[in-house]
Predict the structure of Alginate export family protein.
Amino acid sequence: MGFVLFPGAALLSGIALGGTARADAQKPSASPRPVPAAATPLAPAAPAPVLPLPNSAALVKGALYHPDWKMFNAGNAAASGFGVVNGYGQARWAEDWSALARASQTTRKNDWFNRLKYVRLNDSGSIWMSFSGEERLRYIFENQPLLGQAGKTNASRVLLRNQYGADLHLGEHVRAYAEFLYGVAGGANTYGYQTGAQRESLDLQQGILEFKGHALGAQMGVIGGRQVFLDAPGSMQSPRDLTNVQQTWDGFRGYAVWNRFRIDLFDFMQTNKLPQKVFADGTSYNTRLYGAYTSTALPSFRFMGQKSQMFADVFFLGYLYGGAAASIPAAAPGAVQKGSSRRDNIGLRLWGNIGPFSTNLTGIFQGGEFRPAKPDQNTRAVRAYALNGTITYTRADWAGKPGFGVQADLFSGGSARSQDGAVGTFATPFVPLPYYNDLSLSLTSQNLIGIGPVASFTLRPTLHLKLHAPFFWRASTQDALYGGNGKIYTWRNSLHGGFTGAMPYTQLSWNFAPHWAWTHDIEGILLSRGMRDVGAREGALYMQTLEFKF
C-alpha cells in the first residue's frame, strides 16, 4: 500500500478523534443493512470524522463491531469509555469483528480486507485473530508557530505514521493485542521533533492482555499493559493523535458495565518515548494517571417527538507529574518556578441528546499541591476549576444535515504575583483534544475563557464540513498566557486587558474511497492589539492529511 502525492501539496493522514455522537442506543438485529456514517453533534469542536465502515451494505445488522455495551453503545460506543468505534476505533483493540464469522462467504469477500478482520485459528472458531493497519501522511504549515515564539517561521512539517496491530482472541474470556509503530518526520524550519512524539523507531505502541467475563449481572474485565486511555473529557486529555506518536500508558484498568451504570478503575504510568531507538520505549515512573470514572444512563424520554437520552458521569482523575508541564510562573516577569504537582480532579459531566439538541456540560474542581524543586520554597495547595459546555441543534431532515451550536469554556487562572498562596491555574498536562479549542496549540486549556459558534454539515455521505470560531480571554489578568506542551509565554505584566483574540477554524474531510480519507484543516490566528503590542504574531495553520486504514 502506498501514497499518491498530489501536485503542489503534501498529503496528511486523517485523525479519528471523533467526538461523542447522538445518544441513541443501538439494538442488535439479524438481517443485513447498511451502517450509516455517524453524526457527531456532541463533538466539542470540529474533529475529523472517523472513517466509515467499508462496504457497509455487505455487513451484518446488529454487529456493532465492538462488544455490545447496551445503553453505552451511545456515541458510536464512546459512552463505554473505550473511545469512538465507527467501523474503526480510536483504539483498535476496542473493535470486535467476530460478526464476520456469521456472514456468508459472499458477504465477507465484498471487501478484500474482511479476510484480515476475522481469521479462524481452530475448527470451532473460538480462537481467532483480527489484523488492523494504518498508513498516515500529514503535512502541516505554520507561518508563525506558537504566536511567533517557537524560534521558527514558515515551518513546514511532513509526518508519516505506519501503525499495525494484531488482536488474538483465546475463547470468550482472554484476549491479547499488540500494535507496532514506526514514525518518520521531516520538513523545513521544523521544531519539536526531539520530544519523542514525532519521530519513533520501530516499537511497541500498545500491548495489552485482557481477561473478561460476566459477573453480578455486568460485563467485567481487566486490561493490563501498554494502552491508549480515552475515558476522560476531551477538554482534559486526548490520545495525542495530532502527532505521529499517540500518548500511551503502562498499567491496569478494570471495568464493569451494567445495563444503565458502568465504572472504570485505572492506574497508569506514562510511556517514555525517549530514547528514539528500536524497541527502546520504557515507563516514565515520574508521571502517573489514576482514578475512577462512572457513568449512569438516566431514564429515557421523548422531547419534540424524538427519543432523548442523557448520561450523568461522575469521575475522579488524579495526576502526578513534573517537568515543564508542572512549572508555574514565578514572581519575576518571564521567569518560571520548577517543581512537581499532584492534581486531584473531581468532576461531573451531563451529556446526551434532548430531542434535536445535543448537550455536553462538564464541571471540574481541581485540588492537590505544587511542590517546588528548591527545598527552601514552601509547598502550595492547588485550588482550580473548569466549566465547559456545548449545545448543538441538529436537523437530520434538512439538506446537508446541519448542526448549529455554541461552545463555552472557563479554565481558571491564578495570580503569578502571589508565590505563597494556593495555585489557582487549572492544569491539563496530558494534551487536551487539539480540536477542542485550538488546533495550533498556541493556547491550551489553562487560564482561558473561550466562547464561539460551532457548525457541521454533511454535504454528501462521504463529505463533511465543520466550523468553529472561538474568541478567547485570559480568565485572570494576573496570570500568564499558556500554550501547548507546557509553554508559558513570557508576556504578563505588559499585557493590556484580558482579550487574547480569535482562532476561526474550518475542516473539510472526504472519504473518497473505502478505507481512505483526505482531510484539510485551516485555522487563522487573529490577535488583540494588546497581544500584538507585546510581540505576539498573528498567523495561520494549514494541515492536510491522507489516511489509509483497514
The CA atoms of residues 287 and 321 lie 4 Å apart. The helical segments are 105-109, 114-117, 145-148, 529-533. Residues 105-109 form the longest helix (5 residues). DSSP finds four helices and 27 strands in the chain.
